């Protein structure tokens, strides 16, 4: 019996030393990583991505095998260690990143994101909290440690390696040919492989290794999707003209909004797009000219210039949410939200780069480009429509502040280009070193710099509302813990509200300083979120909401503040979002801008509501469309005309595409609109 066991052990060891065993291990390792990652991170575990990632593991495993059997044995073993550790780190880091930021990092972010180490405490906390998930994910790495001592790393002949590379190529082509089996619609595996850039959907539909390989290739080659820029989307004949936002001029049979147009005019610059297109040698630019020239600008209205000549304080509040507004707990936020314009149907979508993209959308009126830091990418572009550049040209003093590292997301490059004299921690903003830093302190040390320098415009990017939401690692939550101790919530929601108290006290101090300086009556305050507080789980957000929060639409519902002391309060019920903030403020301030060249709309104009989420789901005043389910759900009793979903889906695609083209082509400079 003992001899049989010894013989079996020898045979097993001999089998492990067979050259093909290493190939089998690589395939099993990749598939185990992909399978476990999907089990923990991807809601639709059994979707097409499960099988797509499986088949793509075959050529990937073969390539790893070739790479670790091409040199002498010792060198091959080192290469194998590097490959296995690198892949394990890739999967583990993506899991941790996703559980902190609710998105995945791209190669671009990894190359430019060394500053993420500033959040090392949050990273370590997330790793400890999710140690079970990480342990199961890294089981292949644990198995590798003993197996690598017996696996065969012998050098294979060059001819066989060459044939192996040919086989890798053939298998890869076969995998690509399989993609249309799952359809070619938007966000299908085929679409994400060849056209659409979306890191979150790609992880779901193509797998982690495949997604990162494609992302690296796109970054290296400068890949850009092919945009349909020849014409606006077709208008279904069944749709009434007053239901068509951004409708081409030739179909403009509108009668209802004519009163405003005749009385006030339109928000448009003197741009002859037809002549620009005729004179343009670059066909892509010419097509962009034609597209924008085909759109009807929105009307001016009775709100145009309502705040003309006023000072402006604009705040992007980290992780701000409507759940932070409470009459007793945050009375200043409550006052501003209820005594200004009251938005009951406001949305703050979550974009790929979270805070940075949230800023970009609100400050520029453009959608971010997937896979890059759009705000940073705009640093060398003409950005004539931003509040800073608009007001600087009118003689305002324009300053911006951020109470965290001034270089984070390269704001030291983007914000001066937006028109600001910029200060953050490290280049002139002196506040207590802690995490997160205090919004109250930032207001305290900065107001004297501008309150007596009228007319002024000041922009704040806050940080006190940043995750993690607990009372141990978050200094602001700990500072205000006593005020939330008796609230009927778990620790996460209470810690979040404690952070919101700091923002509320900062606003209270801001109003006091403006009042003391005698300028409050002539100052407009605008506040919106960069994103919802994704540091709270859906269950924790549901605690604050008092009901189960819908993850597809309600999750992104938020609040926005536009307030001026003594103004007449007004409620806005129609759907709107952060993309609408710049055109709305531009109209209220009476600036010269072209509504066709911003992707949002002035909410007081005749342009129809359209809220676009990052996955291209959308909300109108009559319906909402979910790209995950492909369902169009009416939100009123009106019968939706034929072609409604197709029209708006095309419009959504165009808005996303032209936002990217404006960024990539520095289109405003092409128009001669230098700031």
TrEMBL record:
<keyword id="KW-1003">Cell membrane</keyword>
<comment type="pathway">
    <text>Cell wall biogenesis; lipoteichoic acid biosynthesis.</text>
</comment>
<dbReference type="GO" id="GO:0016787">
    <property type="term" value="F:hydrolase activity"/>
</dbReference>
<feature type="transmembrane region" description="Helical">
    <location>
        <begin position="49"/>
        <end position="67"/>
    </location>
</feature>
<dbReference type="GO" id="GO:0005886">
    <property type="term" value="C:plasma membrane"/>
</dbReference>
<feature type="region of interest" description="Disordered">
    <location>
        <begin position="228"/>
        <end position="261"/>
    </location>
</feature>
<keyword id="KW-1133">Transmembrane helix</keyword>
<feature type="transmembrane region" description="Helical">
    <location>
        <begin position="163"/>
        <end position="182"/>
    </location>
</feature>
<keyword id="KW-0812">Transmembrane</keyword>
<keyword id="KW-0378">Hydrolase</keyword>
<feature type="compositionally biased region" description="Basic and acidic residues">
    <location>
        <begin position="244"/>
        <end position="261"/>
    </location>
</feature>
<protein>
    <submittedName>
        <fullName>Sulfatase-like hydrolase/transferase</fullName>
    </submittedName>
</protein>
<dbReference type="InterPro" id="IPR050448">
    <property type="entry name" value="OpgB/LTA_synthase_biosynth"/>
</dbReference>
<dbReference type="InterPro" id="IPR000917">
    <property type="entry name" value="Sulfatase_N"/>
</dbReference>
<feature type="transmembrane region" description="Helical">
    <location>
        <begin position="20"/>
        <end position="37"/>
    </location>
</feature>
<feature type="domain" description="Sulfatase N-terminal">
    <location>
        <begin position="313"/>
        <end position="590"/>
    </location>
</feature>
<keyword id="KW-0472">Membrane</keyword>
<dbReference type="InterPro" id="IPR017850">
    <property type="entry name" value="Alkaline_phosphatase_core_sf"/>
</dbReference>
<dbReference type="Pfam" id="PF00884">
    <property type="entry name" value="Sulfatase"/>
</dbReference>
<feature type="transmembrane region" description="Helical">
    <location>
        <begin position="131"/>
        <end position="151"/>
    </location>
</feature>
<feature type="transmembrane region" description="Helical">
    <location>
        <begin position="79"/>
        <end position="97"/>
    </location>
</feature>
């Amino acid at each position: 019996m003992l001899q049989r066991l010894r013989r079996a052990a020898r045979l097993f060891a001999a089998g492990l030393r067979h050259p093909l065993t290493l190939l089998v291990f690589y395939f099993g390792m990749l598939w185990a990583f992909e399978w476990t990652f999907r089990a923990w991170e991807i809601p639709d575990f059994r979707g097409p991505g499960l099988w797509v990632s499986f088949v793509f593991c075959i050529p990937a495993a073969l390539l790893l095998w070739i790479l670790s059997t091409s040199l002498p044995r010792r060198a091959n073993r080192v290469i194998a260690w590097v490959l296995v550790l690198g892949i394990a780190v890739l999967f583990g880091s993506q899991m941790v990143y996703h559980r902190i930021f609710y998105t995945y990092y791209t190669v671009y972010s990894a190359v430019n994101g060394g500053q993420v180490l500033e959040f090392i405490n949050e990273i370590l906390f997330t790793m400890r909290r999710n140690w079970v998930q990480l342990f199961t994910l890294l089981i292949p790495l644990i198995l590798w440690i003993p197996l690598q001592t017996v696996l065969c790393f012998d050098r294979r002949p060059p001819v066989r390696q060459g044939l192996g590379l040919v086989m890798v190529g053939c298998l890869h082509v076969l995998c690509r040919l399989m993609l249309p089996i799952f359809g070619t619609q938007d966000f299908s595996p085929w679409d994400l492989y060849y056209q659409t850039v979306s890191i979150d959907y790609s992880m779901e539909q193509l797998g982690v290794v495949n997604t990162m390989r494609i992302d690296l290739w796109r970054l290296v080659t400068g890949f850009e999707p092919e945009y349909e820029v020849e014409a606006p989307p077709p208008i279904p004949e069944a749709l009434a003209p007053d239901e068509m936002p951004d409708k081409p001029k030739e179909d403009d049979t509108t009668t209802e909004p004519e009163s405003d147009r005749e009385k006030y005019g339109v928000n448009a610059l003197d741009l002859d797009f037809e002549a620009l297109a005729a004179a343009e040698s670059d066909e892509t630019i010419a097509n962009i000219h034609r597209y924008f020239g085909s759109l009807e600008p929105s009307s001016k209205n009775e709100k145009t210039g309502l705040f003309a000549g006023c000072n402006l304080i604009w705040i992007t509040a980290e992780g701000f949410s409507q759940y932070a507004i409470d009459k007793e707990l945050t009375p200043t936020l409550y006052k501003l939200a209820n005594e200004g314009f009251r938005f009951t149907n406001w949305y703050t979508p979550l974009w790929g780069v979270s805070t940075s993209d949230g800023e970009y959308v609100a400050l520029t009126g453009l959608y971010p480009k997937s896979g890059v830091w759009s705000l940073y990418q705009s640093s060398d572009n003409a950005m004539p429509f931003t509040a800073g550049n608009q007001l600087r040209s009118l003689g305002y003093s324009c300053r911006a502040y951020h109470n965290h590292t001034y270089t984070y997301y390269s704001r030291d490059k983007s914000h001066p280009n937006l028109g600001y004299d910029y200060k953050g921690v490290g280049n002139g903003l002196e506040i207590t070193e802690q995490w997160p830093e205090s919004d109250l302190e930032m207001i305290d040390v900065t107001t004297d710099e501008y309150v007596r320098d009228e007319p002024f415009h000041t922009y704040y990017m806050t940080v006190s509302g940043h995750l993690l939401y607990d009372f141990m690692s978050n200094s602001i939550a700990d500072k205000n813990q006593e005020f939330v101790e008796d609230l009927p919530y778990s620790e996460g929601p209470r810690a979040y509200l404690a952070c919101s108290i700091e923002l509320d006290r900062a606003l209270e101090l801001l109003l006091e300083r403006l009042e003391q300086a005698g300028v409050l009556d002539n100052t407009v305050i605008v506040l919106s979120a960069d994103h919802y507080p994704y540091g709270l789980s859906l269950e924790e957000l549901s605690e604050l909401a008092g009901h189960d929060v819908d993850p597809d639409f309600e999750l992104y519902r938020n609040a926005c503040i536009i307030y001026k002391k003594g103004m007449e309060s007004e409620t806005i019920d129609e759907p709107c979002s952060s993309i609408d903030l710049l055109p709305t403020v531009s109209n209220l301030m009476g600036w010269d801008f072209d509504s066709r060249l911003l992707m949002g709309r002035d909410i007081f104009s005749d342009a129809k509501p359209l809220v676009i989420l990052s996955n291209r789901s959308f909300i109108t005043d009559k319906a909402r469309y979910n790209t995950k389910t492909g369902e169009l759900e009416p939100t009123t009793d009106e019968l939706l005309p034929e072609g409604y979903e197709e029209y708006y889906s095309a419009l959504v695609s165009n808005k996303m595409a032209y936002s990217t083209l404006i960024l990539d082509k520095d289109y405003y400079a092409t128009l001669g609109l230098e700031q």
